[in-house]
Amino acid sequence: LSDAPFMRVWARGEGQVCSFSFRSFELRVAIARGALAAHGVARGQRVALLSHYTPQFAIYSLAVMCLGGVSVHLNWRQVRLTKPCSLLSPPTPSASSAHPLPVQPSSRAA
């Protein structure tokens, strides 16, 4: 893979806040893929992602798809949860609480 720029993230009034090469982005997807696989994500499973559109959102979405899963993008503006819900486990009648995937803040480019 190339070290050429793949994704640049900009913030209004701040300029470029981070940048990823093809190689660094693929490495992050591989790390996320390993974490998701360790949590049991496999082919055909649905994984809901509730997030602003960030590099981490794209990384986890691609990682789910690499595992053969279905990345379900939820609209963070409209979801109002009254109880924590599982974003890793398939829904069951009695499953009502678990912890969602952690999303780490992006690092600023120096």
How would you characterize the overall build of this protein?
Helix 1 (22-38) crosses helix 2. It contains 2 helices and 4 strands; from the N terminus they run ββαβαβ. It has 110 residues and is an alpha+beta fold. The strands form 2 sheets. A two-stranded antiparallel sheet has the order 1-2. It is flat.
Order of helices and strands: EEHEHE
Structural class: alpha+beta
Number of strands: 4
Q: What form results from the Cα inertia axes?
A: flat
Give the terminus-to-terminus CA distance.
23 Å
Can you count the helices?
2
The parts where pLDDT drops under 50 for at least 5 residues are 89-110
**Fraction of residues in helix:** 25-40%
- Average pLDDT level: 76
Keywords:
alpha+beta; two-stranded parallel ribbon; 4 strands; flat
Task: Map the helices and strands.
Blueprint: E1 5-11, E2 15-21, H1 22-38, E3 46-50, H2 55-66, E4 70-74
Parallel strand pairs: 3-4
Antiparallel strand pairs: 1-2
Helix pairs in contact: 1-2
